[in-house]
Amino acid sequence: MGIEIDNHCLSTLFFADDQVIVAGCEEDADYMFRKLEEEYYRWGLNINLTKTEYLKVGEEQTEDPELHIHEIKRCSEYKYLGSIISEEGNSKKDIHSRVQQGKKVIGLLNPLLWSNKTSIQTKIRIYKANVEPILTYGAKCWQFTAKERRMVESVEMDFLRRACRISRMEHIRNEEIRQRTRRIYTSTDNIESRQLLWYGHVKRMGGERWPKRAMEYRPQSRRKRGRPTTTWLDGVDQYMRDRAIIKKWIKCI
Predict the structure, then answer these.
(1) pTM of the entire structure?
(2) Is the four-CA dihedral 65, 54, 1, 25 of positive or negative sign?
(3) Residue 64 pLDDT grade (very low, low, confident, very high; cuts 50, 70, 90)
(4) Phi and psi torsions of 246, nearest 5°
(5) Where in this chain does the record put each Reverse transcriptase domain (predicted)?
(6) Average pLDDT, whole number, for the chain?
(7) How far is the C-alpha of 50 from the C-alpha of 73, rounded, in Å?
(8) Average pLDDT of 128-138?
(9) Which pLDDT band holds residue 252 (cuts at 50, 70, 90)?
(10) Is the predicted pLDDT of residue 245 greater than 70, yes or no?
(11) Digit-coded pLDDT (tens) for 185-234
């Protein structure tokens, strides 16, 4: 039951009163759910089926209508601990959601941003305290592709232009806007740094810790034909090369 990672089985995740069942196929998920339901019932507890959903990640599989799990609503995505998990198994929907939330906050701050009574540096502090945390929540685990990077940069530049009271119609380059706001260290730089810090934190964990097992796991099954998907570790490797810190990191290990 569960999924096997380097001879260890991951079957469930807990946080507060939330529980996630992890299975390799529908039949296993169905069996695990029934056993969990029976065990809870023994202790006088019931699972609220209206608040329970199941998600299949990866290739589409044939569904067996006889399975008990199909009494539960199937979803294409769900929010867990503030981040969106999708059936595609990537970070696109989570990043898109964060971008939309960032735009919404900027819209609420619009009167303040266009005001000439508030200094630019005060507006930047507002960005760091109110916009950037929302925009980059959960970013240390993102698969950060070039397309998603441009989306995050676009939200940040929208804020900076409003803070400078400069519209797009004035055709002032982004570099000039950043110089005026002294915002050289960008949100994407922040995301890269957080991913590197998380990588280092997990790398230093003991081999019995699940974050390290998951990060270092390499599936043995054959992948699909075509260009390989850019993984989170691919991004971390690139950030390390950009900063020329691979050799330093190896020495630290």
Answers:
(1) 0.85
(2) positive
(3) low
(4) -65, -50
(5) 1-85
(6) 86
(7) 8
(8) 94
(9) low
(10) yes
(11) 899 999 999 999 999 999 888 888 988 988 888 777 666 676 777 888 88
Tell me which residue has tokens 């992948």: 223
Indicate the angle between helix axes 187-203 and 146-163, nearest 10 degrees.
130
